[in-house]
Design brief:
There is one protein chain. It is built from one helix and two strands; from the N terminus they run ββα. The chain is 14% helix and 13% strand. Strands 1-2 form a two-stranded antiparallel sheet. The protein has 63 residues and is α+β, with helices and mostly antiparallel strands. The longest helix is centred in the last third of the chain and has 9 residues.
């Protein structure tokens, strides 16, 4: 059965947030969970505006 323990890793040391796992000479696996910050949604542009800014290749669209 698998058990999980939470710790903060700082300066080469683990600081257990709750009860530390029992010490033993068994193999352990460490899973690092890192928070991923979502990128801001880019401002939406009309295709014509994007092309005009990028290349200046289109004339004015009526309307």
């Amino acid at each position: 059965m698998l058990k999980s323990y939470e710790a903060i890793y700082r300066q080469g040391q683990l600081r257990w947030l709750h009860q530390a796992p029992p010490t033993s000479d068994e193999e352990i696996r460490v899973l690092v969970v890192a928070e991923i910050v979502e990128a801001k949604t880019p401002t939406k542009h009309h295709l014509h505006e994007v092309l005009q800014q990028a290349w200046g290749c289109l004339g004015q669209v009526p309307g």
